[in-house]
Amino acid sequence: MSGARDGVDALLRNNQEWAAGVTERDPLFFEALSRQQSPRYLWIGCSDSRVPANEIVGLKPGELFVHRNVANLVVHTDLNCLSVLQYAVDVLRVRHVIVCGHYGCGGIAAALAGRPLGLIDNWLRHAQDVMQKHQALLAAAADEEARLRRLCELNVIEQVLNVARTTVVQQAWDRGQELAVHGWIYSLRDGLLRDLQMTATGPSGVVSASLAALAALGPA
Ligand code: CO
Fold it and tell me: Right CATH number for 37-216 from 3.90.230.10, 3.40.50.2020, 3.40.1050.10, 3.40.50.261?
């Protein structure tokens, strides 16, 4: 087999095996899922292939609503991300929004280095805004590797702030809907998540949560 189908036929075969395996363990799994989804969580993560959302938190289909983009950015004019957020909060009524970054993020590294990559430079400009805002913290990092780690962390904290400041989340809180926004970071080296202590549960605590998270970062 070669050409256009080379490599993708294996995926279709994998899918048949996967579906058969799931059905064997739980004969009603797909029937129940096809009727409705009621995930408790919205995941906003990086597109990086090494950070598969469901898998690293042990959740099955139907349990995690997902939005991923390069460098897990939440931009106030991004209709795609905002639509996912609105649907998740207003319609699915998720209880938690998790912004998950990861160490060694290529998008963040490109932003830090100012390395031109094309159209995506415009997207990564938002990560460079985070750099600008936290210049002093980044300057204090011991070396380039530490600086990249720190920017990956700072970016998560800022994106949690961005989620919390959307009209979607603000209005949900105004009407008394229970909704928490969390900032986590994933390590490619050991597969572990770290809670950045950036959790916003209402409009009044957002800024103090970010200050607490910044204080909890420790030396870079
Ligand atoms: Co990334």
Answer: 3.40.1050.10
Q: Which residues surround ligand 1, an ion (CB under 5 A)?
A: 46, 48, 105, 107
How many angstroms separate the Cα of 105 from the Cα of each of 2, 153, 202? 33, 10, 29
pLDDT per position as a tens digit, 175-209? 999 999 999 999 999 999 999 999 999 999 999 99
The runs of H, that is alpha helices, within 143-202 are 144-164, 167-174
* Annotated catalytic residue 48: yes
**Is-contact 198 182, C-beta < 8 A?**
yes
Question: Which carries the bigger pLDDT value, residue 90 or residue 5?
Answer: 90
Q: Which of 50, 115, 125, 194 is catalytic?
A: 50
Structure tokens at 149: 């780690």
Q: How far is the CA of 151 from the centre of ligand 1 (A)?
A: 12
pLDDT of 80-131, one tens digit each? 999 999 999 999 999 999 999 999 999 999 999 998 999 999 999 999 999 9
Is pLDDT at 31 greater than 70 in this prediction? yes
Separation of CA 174 and ligand 1 centre (Å): 33
Q: If we measure between CA atoms, which residue out of 207, 28, 18, 70 comes closest to residue 10?
A: 18
Domain boundaries, the chain: 1-35, 37-216
100 carries an active-site annotation? no
DSSP 90: I
